[in-house]
Amino acid sequence: MALAALSEPAELGRPLVDKLARVVALTAPEKAYLQDMQADFATIRSRGDIITAGYTYQGIFVLNRGTAIRYKILRDGRRQVLGVFLPGDFIGFPGGLFEKALYSVSSLTDAVVCAISFDTIFELFHRFPRLAAALFWLTSRETALFTERLVGIGRQSAYERVAHLLLELLVRLQGAGLADARSYELPLTQELMADALGLSVPHVNRTLRRLRDEGLISIEGQRLTFNDVDRLSREVDFDRAYLRLMIQHHAGALKMVDDLFNTSLAGQDVDVNVFANDVVTAQTTEIGIMQRLLTQLPAK
Length: 300
Hints:
The protein is α+β, with helices and mostly antiparallel strands. Helices cover 47% and strands 18% of the residues. The strands form three sheets. The chain has a five-stranded antiparallel beta sheet with strand order 1-2-9-4-7. A four-stranded antiparallel beta sheet has the order 3-8-5-6. Helix 4 crosses helix 9. 35% of the residues are buried.
């Protein structure tokens, strides 16, 4: 990775701060810590690997600019896209937390990332319990994303899968400030969409054409516009609730986290390694189930 020759670290660190601020009301010290821990920036060229499966990493990454995908290459060369990363997302949960990375992450565009060591993350757990809780909540949303993909692959038609993915991207890109009320620059090619949904490229192409012919979407170049978001959401059973997290509404959970991290029970400190393991277990299980299911499905 080439070091990023950038003079605005505060601006680069803002996507992560803004993302966590949507989950929990951040204090000034919490915002300052999030900015300060983002210091080791690097530029990644388009299609460059940020994480390579099989390698060992001593931390995780934040995607500060650009877009990226998590993927796995099967033994016969087939690729399964497991997720899309947007600015402000953590990269390395959960695959990078094992002895060797389970999955690869590659940039789709020129990108900027920031490396954050595990020591820094554990220090965050100790010093800022509400930030630790926010990370836990965000990981829960990742699990919800995998669950929705499992439902789509297991039970939805190609039409429903493609439309659901497009609507999901709309909500996520809006949260990252990269989409307006009903349009965005499509970050995925038809090949990537096919690899994410367990479909063939021709089937994705036919489905997009059908959505256009029905007047539900318009595509000009890479710009995708929804002509009727509500109608399409109803037709494919898309409910954006799984993309919304507001931990500040759970006052009891916040108090429990504060008690857990700020006091010692029976004179013993909290084991942050156990906490980190609990955070990623559910997500890892979801990814494994999706991979096994996809390998058993014929391409459509």
